[in-house]
Amino acid sequence: VDNDQRDLDMNSKDVDAEKITRFIRMNELRLVTEYNPVTSIGVMQSSLQLHLLLITDKMSPKHPERMRRYRAAAELFKEKILFILVDSNLKSNEQTVSFFKLKKSQLPALAIFHTPDEEWDVLTLDEVSVDRVQDFCNHFLQ
């Protein structure tokens, strides 16, 4: 997604299937990357300095439609913003949710984060739409 290449030293004697799988998982970044302990390394190493997080409940019946719209918005900002999904139900993501000063009652929400200066903004939403995501991103970029 950010045209950055990472290489695994295949000449090392300790390379096995597990290490190759871990390397791929850490370094694969999709149009929307789900945030978890494995992908967090790839997210943090991305050369893209703007991260847009959709913090939502993956178990919600509205989740598939939210993701469809979120992916559509991600297409508009390819190579500019890294789109990330944060499942609010995972205990490992509680710290991320609290970093943006959000409570479960305020979700779903969008949080945009600029990594070099740690500047961020949050938008709570009832509905994820391409227009709202696009407006939020454009406002922050300005």
TrEMBL record:
A Pfam family: Thioredoxin_6
InterPro entries assigned to the protein according to its UniProt record, in alphabetical order: Thioredoxin-like_sf (IPR036249)
GO cellular component, one term: endoplasmic reticulum
Domain of life: Eukaryota
Gene Ontology biological-process annotations: protein folding; response to endoplasmic reticulum stress
Protein family according to the UniProt entry: Belongs to the protein disulfide isomerase family.
Protein name, UniProt field: ERP27 protein
Organism: Ardeotis kori
